[in-house]
Structures
1.
Amino acid sequence: MTVAIAARDIEVRFNPFIEKSPTLRRTIARGRVSKREEVVALDGVSFDIMRGEAFGIVGSNGAGKSTLLRVLARTLRPDGGSVMVHGRTSTLLQLGVGFNRQLSGRRNIYLGCLANGLTVAEIEDRLDSILDYAELGTAIERPMTTYSSGMFSRLAFSISMHLDPDILLVDEVLSVGDEDFRRKSMQTMLDLLVRSGTIVYVSHNLQSVEEFCDRVMWLEKGKVRNIGDPAEMVEAYKQSIKR
Amino acid sequence: MSTVTASDAPRLSAWRGYVADLWRRREFATYLARANLRARNANTALGLLWWVLNPLLLSLVYFLVFGVLFNRIDEQPRYLAHLLSGMFVFNFTTLSMTGGANSILGNMSLLANIRFPRLILPISALIEATVGFLASLLVFYLLAIPVDGILPGFELLALPAVLVLHVVFNLGLAALTARLVIPFRDINNLIPHLTRLWLYLSPIIWPITFVTDRAPWAAKWLVLNPMVPLVDLYRWVLMGDELASTSVIGSIAWAVAIFVLGILAFVRYEGNMVRHI
């Protein structure tokens, strides 16, 4: 088996501005009103993901899952460590489905594909197929401000899969779709795995992680707790949150 | 295959790849510019017209205050054309600055999801602003020809070259503004005040003779203001005014300096933009 993604000692720190009420007494006592405290979002995270593998990531809110996906998508540069990615990645993050919500769904197809490096001619070749897959009907001409979260994820998934990715990064988006679309998107992802594509799957829906993934990584406070068999990891993670 | 490490800032050898990546996505830049123009048209009744109306109305206010009330018309022949040309040129630069910064702040979801050369966003903002600027030049002649009897001369042939200089300068400034605004949003509140100060320090409302005649000691400091040579170039191109010998070299020097500084600062920062969502 060949490696699709190799991550070594990834470290990401954020510098949020910690506010403390600036009383005069404290100002005099400390000589300053506020100070910067670093938050470590990812701390020495290392793993390998193979081609043809569905790799799940579980962890509580703030464990660093979304940050990690941004590093893998290479939209966020880590403060330390390195990531090696073999192949074309396509990203389906929770936050950024509507590229420009003022514009219609159709124009957002163009926007998303153009940003990913496709030409207008290439998009027009795929347009019918993208529209068919998303099954949005006439809603495709409406501004995306009018879309429900399920409609968002339909369009986003359809666009992502039509970018012919070798690696798909999925963050939670599919949990909002209806049952029909969920089944259809699962089938499409399985097809990608059969073609030795790679899927990194982040979800709070632990049952779907356990069923779908080949291996699971359990993240806690920016650190890798364990990597291994999905059932074992999910069970261990469940135990930890019960306590 | 691609590798990302902590020190991912493009080295000199990587610039060729960056530019190739930009060129590959040229359709993205124009599509984004068109989409934004369309959205602007849809949101307000007068739409794109505001691009021309804003500097035009501001010019008319200054025309009333300084031209009529303070009677500056004697001092600067063809005052309205002088004012309008300067105001449109200045407006192009300030709108590029704010547009460039907003192109990043307004597209954070795109930035978080998709890896592409971020410079595409300010470039598309600049395409949008250039369209508005060209429209305002038509309005300039529409008013300057009947009011001040200005006819475009052979100098107008130099417009494309001057426009290229101006766009290069504006892109550098837009990239620089975006680099500063993303981590320090406060700057967005400061920009209107800085640009107003810049406007008053530039020979737009007042004629350049204001400084050169009355305060010759200050004249040598004018070179510190990039608007001075740029506006001078435009007034030569648009209305056949006399061209100062230093304006060509001054404009080129400012454009190159700001462009290099802005692009370097922006591109080296690209991998950190998503931190500030």
Note: The two ends of chain B are 28 Å apart (CA to CA).
2.
Amino acid sequence: MFDKALFYFFASLAVVSAFLVVTRRNAVHSAIFLITALLATAGIFLQLHAEFLFIVQIILYVGGIMVLFVFVIMLVNLDVAAHQPQFNRQTWVASLTALIVSGQFVAAFYLSRKAGSGRALFGLPQAQATRLDPNTELIGLTLFKNYMLPFEIASILLLVAMIGAVVMAKRRV
Amino acid sequence: MNALIEFFRPHLLPLLYALVIVAVLPLIVGYIVLVERKVMADMQARLGPMRVGPHGLLQPIADAVKLLIKEDIIPENADKMLFWAAPLISVTAALLALAAMPIGPKFQIADLNIGLLFILGISSMGIFGIVLGGWASNSHYSLLGALRSAAQLVSYETAAGMALISGLLLAGTLSMHRIVEIQAGAGVWFMFLAPVGFFIYLVASIAETNRAPFDLPEAESELVAGYMTEYSGFRWSLYFLAEYVNMIVVGSIATTIFLGGWLRPFPNVNALNFLDAFPPLLMLVLAGYCFYRTPKQPVKVQKGFLAAVGLLCLALAGVLGVVLAPAAAAFKTPVHGTFWFLLKVFLYLYVFMWLRFTLPRYRFDQLMKLGWHFMLPVAIVNVMAIAVALVLHRPREAGGLDWGLGASLLVSNAGTLIVAAYLAAVGQRRASPVVGGA
């Protein structure tokens, strides 16, 4: 009961604030609602006993990326941005995309309903009611044992992006 | 009804701890401010606040009352909603971080298996309070202060995090409670195994709490009061509270990771068990001093108040002394643990004050250069060096310590220091001819 109420609270918070991110005119307000949406998602992670994902979501997205977002938004002249058109008139493309995505969602829900029959596409295991093993260690071990190569490739990608940013920002280092 | 009671039963004690922390913390913060003013006065050969109460002991109460009844001004063109919410974000983030702090072996609201990450993540959200408050004020000083603050926090958070990783590698767990237990097992505080990491965290935590010599966001001579320029009264005091709670948070992190948390100095050496008598004796000395000064107070009220403070110290001495008795052995570690933890945190904060009144303020480009060109590289080298030492002399159990591991940790710290010296030399050479650069 309590778990369900919490889930619906976080889920509706995430959806409502994601909607507000798009509709607010003031970019700073949009950023704040994006933070709320990210925090609500983190709350859902926590409810699934994925503590590490929860805190990484907060540290990386809320504490890192969003701070830089807000930082940049403050340097932009908001008065100019407020007078620009907020939406593109691309009704047909947008509704087609929305239709496809919602079709996918419906299919996913329908298939996961039949998860009990054992041949479902989204047969995700239920989170355990009690405390799981410390999943920081588990994620670390999996990353560095089973997925070493993808992990290293991702780090090289980030390194390249970082060096690229430095080179573009500063002509003479 | 019964089901409801059963549901709340495991949460009662944490709830009580949370209430105690939230209720007592503003008082503690007020007295930290008083201590800071007294220390500053002492270093500048003055007396400091002396008027309200004996030796100014009631000054924090008077200040709090003054702040509460002050007019609460909201600028005309401010973003009202954000202006109202920003201090709350700061204060909530700072208080929430204390939830996972092991103040004593029993005095901990929640022992999370992501403890340290939780504290770092939640306290990093306090930046939003500063940035949004500065932006919502619609003032140039506030905005510039907020931007400086955000840049400074982001750059020093990385160095601080890397410094904490050196402690984490030694402990092998993220749970704050386990980290202290592992230090008890190893018989040595991690400060002595990773001194470079501790030093980097000390410096980075000063920068993270926006204190001198890194108090650029509030540099009076340039920015009036930085992001809080437009704030007054109660909202201003919320920012102030958040700032000092953040100091307590970084002090508690340093105490837990590097200074052995609630452990007594030399917890495993039986020959030094007489150190257990230190807490009650300290309180007795304080009580004695209060009673000695009581007759010398000029006003009757002040005499009474100082005597009351003396009685409080006496009562604390009684509590700390009674638990030493064999009959109350079960309570000894929790009570004394809390004492030692708080003592270490306050000593850490004393170092903050000491540095504040000793060192002049950095320039902003110097601050950034120190963070990115020196602290972060040294912290990364430190982590790598300690990791190599741990791999070469893998301890049998987590936190186990032998001479081989100790020696290789010594070598790795020395190596880190050599790298630091090299970086400092390069920085010196590069910095000297440039005028008005960066």
Note: Chain B has three domains: 6-56, 70-263+356-431, 270-355.
